[in-house]
Design a protein that fits this description.
- There is one protein chain.
- The protein has one domain.
- It is built from ten helices and no strands.
- It has helices at about 1-40, 50-60, 60-90, 95-125, 135-145, 150-170, 175-180, 185-220, 230-235, 240-265.
- Helix 1 packs antiparallel against helix 10 (about 240-265), helix 6 runs antiparallel to helix 8 (about 185-220) and helix 8 (about 185-220) crosses helix 10 (about 240-265).
- It starts with a helix and ends in a 7-residue tail after the last helix.
Amino acid sequence: MVVSDKVKQRSLKSVEWLARGSYIAKAVLYAAIALFTVEFALGSRKVDPNRKEVLEQLMGNAAGKILLVLMVLALAGHTLWRLFEIWNDPYKKGTGPGGWLYRLNYLLSAITYGSIGITAVKLLMGQGGGQNNQKRIWVAQLLQIEGGDWLIIGVGCVLLTWAGLQIYKGVSGKVYKSLELETVNSFIKAFLRFCGFAGFITVGATLAGTGWYLVKGALAKNPQWVKNMDDLIEGVRGLPGGWWLQLGMGAGFFLMAVFMLAMSRYFPLKTTE
């Protein structure tokens, strides 16, 4: 029994370290997307900025492949940790509406970063990461099924809810306030507060755009309305002050990367009692 408990504690501790590593992996993703977005805005990059492009860029050399392997392990840890949070509720969110909203956030995070990890595995195995327009393809397929449009609308509404949670995190500073920053000076604290504010709002706005266009595509029964992250970044250019908005998005993703690094160091993970 004692041996079993020790094995369990070691397993949970391993998941905790992998979860911390996953924040570093997320920081790499956001930083690369930020760089690609700025290059895209400046006209020095023709390929649209997205997570798949980041992973494909890492396949270009041996060091990148090693980093990709480490990211796969870290993202697997992140997925396991999110599932652990859903099941065990270590932060005592409860079973009320707020608690289930947080569980929804955990589930979507697990699905998102788990799928990125799967894409990375496929690239490492030489299978390719799939088509960039996969979202449009499955929307087109669902639109051929009776009631499929309502399912798409449901997914869009879930993404809009998730977007609202991300924006709430940024505005309220809830995640920032949970960081253990007792030994950090006031300037760094203020900077990290701003990183969380700008980063979560940027991510939330991107998710909101994705969710809105899913709903719009379902209502119009036209999968061409469906937008990925790179479509949204490219589409911003057509808005008033679009060039500056694109640069702002790049800055927001970079600040989110910085905040993820802070999360890896200062966020109080609770996989063990």
